[in-house]
Amino acid sequence: MATVSGIQGQVLEVTVVRCNKLKDTEWISRQDPYVCLEYASTKFRTRTCTDGGKNPVFQEKTIIPLIEGLREITVNVWNSNTITFDDFIGGGKIQLQKVLSQGYDDSSWSLQSKSGKFAGEVTVIMHFPNAKKEQKAQAGHHCHLPTAPPATSYAPPSSYAPPAYPSSAPPAPPVAYPSYGAYPSPAPMQYPTGYPPSTYPATSSYPPPPMPQAYPPQTYPPAAYPPQPYPPPPQAQPHYPPGPYPGTYPHTPY
User: Fold this and answer.
1) Does residue 75 sit in helix, strand or coil?
2) What architecture is domain 11-133?
3) For residue 35, which of 85, 73, 84, 83 has the smallest C-alpha distance?
């Protein structure tokens, strides 16, 4: 749709077609209606439809220069008299919003008498030639606006997508989990073997098994004691009974 702004100086084609159901202001003869249009300082009057009665036909065209901010035309229908003043039949307002938006309007507009009662209607065809030009211009303008944002909106995703793939690349290093296999193999096995012989002599004392072997043979004679005391107890027992009982053996020295 064309906008209703920027119409200053452009032209509007208006054709007064006919009137329908006009209020009759004549008692004896048929009335002779005519139509007057007024838009700012522009005024237009149709010819008088002699004996037009209630349904006069005009089919007259005029061109009205548009003014920015004025969106309606005043219409009045009169009955022409030869002797007295013309009789006012009815008047109304013709709205320009539709014709300025769509470029064409053939509506009928209601008329009201001075007392506000229905006084008939007038059919007018209006044509705004520049409406299509404005529609095309605005269509192109709106088309460029939508196309530009999608281009900008697509560009960021493309730039973000490559970073997303490198981010997934780090997960690939899990293939380097063999490094974990390397950690356990050299760490526990090689370090203890290398340390004792080279740097720490204390490791020589670390193998205490040889030390307990030296204790029994050299320092503690009980090493020989264990084998002897176990068999001697049966031999010592026969010697002890004769000793403690002197009453039995003292007779031998006599």
Assistant:
1) strand
2) Sandwich (2.60)
3) 73
Cα 91 to Cα 21, 84, 131, 142: the distances in Å are 13, 20, 28, 41
Half-sphere exposure of 154 (CA within 13 A, CB side): 5
Q: Which residue has the tokens 């090689």?
A: 190
C-beta contacts of 240-249 below 8 A and 24+ residues apart = none
Closest to 69 measured CA to CA, from 115, 6, 122, 136: 6
**Parallel, antiparallel, or unpaired for β 57-65 and 11-20?**
antiparallel
What is the distance between the alpha carbons of residues 108 and 62, in angstroms, rounded to a whole number?
17
One-letter amino acid for residue 89 of the chain: I
Name the helix (H) or strand (E) containing 74. strand 72-79
123: which strand partners?
18, 108
Pairwise CA distance, residues 234 & 237, whole Å: 5
Chain segment 202-221, per-residue pLDDT in tens: 444 444 554 544 444 444 44
pTM of the model: 0.52
d(CA 209, CA 205): 9
Residues of the chain with pLDDT under 70: 1-5, 132-254
Per-residue model confidence as pLDDT tens digits over 45-95: 999 999 999 999 999 999 999 999 999 999 999 999 988 999 999 999 999
Left if phi > 0, otherwise alpha if psi is -120 to 50, otherwise beta: which for 87? beta
